[in-house]
Amino acid sequence: MLHIDDLSGGYGDVPVLRGITCDLARNEIVGVLGCNGAGKSTLVKAIIGLLPQVSGDIRFLGESLVGLRTHEIARRGIGLVPQGRWIFPKLTVRENLMVGMRAGGESDIPEAVFHYFPVLRARLEQDGGTLSGGEQQVLAIARALCGRPKVLLLDEPSDGVQPNLVDLLGDVIPALCRESGLAVLLVEQNLDLVLKTAQRCIVLEKGAVVHAERVDPAAQCLDAHVLADYLSPGHPAGLSPCSRNTA
């Protein structure tokens, strides 16, 4: 569905992404892990058309997205939930959701939004800025879903929210993929959330993919040990933990 081939890019003379290649299939959740500054959010910006300098290719359903504007990419079926939520605080919940509907050409808020996030039905006339941090994150996700995306880019959805909401996301994200055919690129530092939801994961370090593997629920402890080693701030660049004794 989404194919990224030898993607590089950055800001001005500062390179950030270095030759990233990965795929995302229908119904699949791929986790993107890495320490702060690894290039995770920059990868999301490149996909959605917000990175000013890009080389390589990003193809969605066979069409190259390189050079398209962000709203053109959104209308093709890619939704974004940015880090920090970016809701409209002075618009009501209903109005925030209506903004999201513009990408998919919907005339009514999809009922599925309230199925997955029932708290929003009771908050429809409440200003977005008066919601709790967790409710604002739910609203940001629901707004993206209102555009009926085929691919959803989730950038650090667990950042700054309470543990019970992280548990909810761990249930809702896989359900969305099973029930709607959605594919999710999940950018996270929360290793537990990635292991709970993703079928595959990649680890970025200094803008490059340094590790990729399929998540095996039967061997989740080993996966967590290996991946956590990569995410450690003291991990030496270029040295694979798979070559060391991790027992």
Structure, explained:
The strands form two sheets. Strands 6-7-8-3-9-10 form a six-stranded mixed sheet, with helices on both faces. It folds into two domains: 2-77 and 150-243, Rossmann fold; 87-148, no CATH class. The chain has helices at 40-48, 70-75, 93-104, 111-116, 133-145, 163-180, 191-197, 220-231, and strands at 2-11, 14-24, 29-33, 53-60, 63-64, 78-81, 151-155, 183-187, 200-205, 208-214. By secondary structure, it is α/β, with parallel strands linked by helices. It is globular and about 45 Å long.
What does this entry show, briefly?
The protein is α/β, with parallel strands linked by helices and 247 residues long. The protein contains 8 helices and 10 strands. The strands form 2 sheets. It has a 6-stranded mixed β-sheet, with helices on both faces.
Give the fraction of residues assigned to helices. Answer: 25-40%
Distance between the termini: 37 Å
Number of helices: 8
The number of E-state strands comes to 10
Mean pLDDT, as a whole number? 86
Regions with pLDDT < 50 over 5+ consecutive residues?
236-247
Number of domains: 2
What is the global morphology?
globular
Question: What are the main properties of this structure?
Answer:
247 residues, alpha/beta, Rossmann fold, 2 domains, four-stranded antiparallel sheet, 10 strands, 26% strand, globular
